[in-house]
Amino acid sequence: MPSVLFASIFTTLGGWIEDLTGWLEDASAQWWFLLVILAIALLDSVIPIVPSETAVILGGVAAGQGEQPLLLVIAAGAVGAFLGDNLAYEIGHRFSDRIAKRAEHREKTRKRMDWARQSIAERGGMLLITARFIPGGRTALTITSGLTSQPRLWFVKWIGVAAILWASYAAILGNIFGQQFADNHTLAFVLAFLAALSITILIEVVRHARKSRADRDDEAADRVGAADRS
Q1: Domain tally for the chain?
Q2: Residue 17 burial by CB count (10 A; 0-12/13-18/19+): exposed, middle or buried?
Q3: Is the pLDDT at 74 greater than 90, yes or no?
Q4: How far is 176 from 57, CA to CA, in rounded Å?
Q5: pLDDT at 29 over 80
Q6: What are 181-218's pLDDT values in tens digits?
Q7: Does residue 129 register a pLDDT over 50?
Q8: CB neighbours of residue 130 within 10 Å
């Protein structure tokens, strides 16, 4: 019974998203489509099932056909993503005290929160940038940033960069490849995901190399200090 219910819900959501995508494609030439891009990008930061990449890509396609200004498509997507990510942060921040109290009594919750804080501290703002390209991942990370009380100014700065890069990538992708992505939204999503994965791997390799070098420098400094004391 649960599997049947889940399949029904999944089918319903899939049909709804398909219908919404078709409507977006039909409306992409209208002037008010820029407001639609902004609204969908905002909502997608909190509700991951909303197809924000598709909206921005279709805006890019429309720009390639002379129906929308490309810079305004990028601006609409970036502003929507920026506002949505800050909303997700605020949602997490509102629950931070409650989660902190729960962590005092539940070791499992405390370990998860400690892991989240450490991961964000180690990977820094670049983690916010790569997560923005992963539907669902960006929502989880922005809410977690609020839950773990990351500095607001730090968060706003990196989210601003992430939103601009994300919107530019999606809009330019649609602008260059045009109808290929208008007819194949899955391909656009796969390329965006692979780009995010590649960036993540590159950042992790560089971070690991820098950490290993720092560890070696610390060990060398310790040996020199021990030799001086002897």
Answers
A1: 1
A2: middle
A3: yes
A4: 10
A5: no
A6: 656 656 666 666 666 667 667 766 766 676 677 667 66
A7: yes
A8: 24
- Degrees, nearest 5: CA angle 145-147-148: 65
Token representation of residue 149: 């009380």
Please check whether residue 109 is in contact with residue 161, taking contact to mean a CB–CB distance below 8 angstroms. Answer: no
Calpha distance 180→57 (Å, rounded): 11
What tens digit of pLDDT does each residue of 148-164 get?
Answer: 888 999 999 999 999 99
Angle between helices 137-147 and 125-132 in degrees, nearest 10: 150
Helices then strands, counting H and E runs in the chain, come out as: 11, 0
Looking at residue 13, its pLDDT comes to 47
Q: How far apart are CA 93 and CA 87, in angstroms?
A: 10
d(CA 42, CA 46): 7
Helix (H, G, I), strand (E, B) or coil at 140: helix
Domain range enclosing 10: 2-229
Residue where the block lists tokens 């601006």: 75
Using the structure block, give the residue that is written with the tokens 């924000």.
52
